[in-house]
Amino acid sequence: MSIVSDRLDAPTVIATIDQLEGRIRARFADRGLPKAAAELRSAATEVSELGVHLRGRLRVLRWTARAASVLVALGMALVLVVAARDADLSGSVRSVDWVALVESTIQTLVFGGLTLLFLNALPDRLERRHLLRRLHRLRSLAHVIDMHQLTKDPERLRSDFEPTDATVAVDLTRAEMQHYLGYCSELLALVGKVAALCAEDSQDGLILETVSDIENLTNGMSRKIWQKISLLPD
Q: What pTM, to 2 d.p., does this model score?
């Protein structure tokens, strides 16, 4: 996998998926696995395009949020100054004026602080929403790919295998099954790579954790596939 400046290169990942899809279609054009590869390519393209568009949108949104935060902070200061000026604290100290001033100050600080928190968190929430949607699609795709290999049982190719009425027929030779299972494993590995693309520009803990979960999921599925390959009869 090509890496540029210590980063995954999205075009190279997409090109690798294209190459794998072509290899799958050359052997299994009449099966559903090429469609899974095409879906993965579509997901990878979407993630790549999203990264470009999202960076620009987030940059504008962050500057807008900062400008709005400054305005809110100035507004809070102005409200506090006006409240202090309007409170009649001269002469004899009246508790009602102190109570009104303290109450106004607390309300201003609370609502102003909540507004500042919302504005500062808005860009990250937008980024998280978009990326989680793509990561959910990749997790679902990983399960779809895993479904393709579930019925490819190497035991059914053994000469001493005795089928039952419920046995699913296998119409693959040993070599074809090895290729099929190998393609499933490669697709799962690329699902993990596309998921990693989602986290290239994100420091969000939930995003990083979700990417790690998908990578662990696809690695576990791939290990089971290679166990099947190792059981293929000679």
A: 0.71
Digit-coded pLDDT (tens) for 16-36: 999 999 999 999 988 889 999
What single string gives the DSSP state of each residue in the chain? --EETTEE-HHHHHHHHHHHHHHHHHHHTTSSHHHHHHHHHHHHHHHHHHHHHHHHHHHHHHHHHHHHHHHHHHHHHHHHHHHHHHS--SSS--HHHHHHHHHHHHHHHHHHHHHHHHHHHHHHHHHHHHHHHHHHHHHHHHHHHHHHHHT--GGGGSTT----TTPPP----HHHHHHHHHHHHHHHHHHHHHHHHHTTT---HHHHHHHHHHHHHHHHHHHHHHHHHHTS--
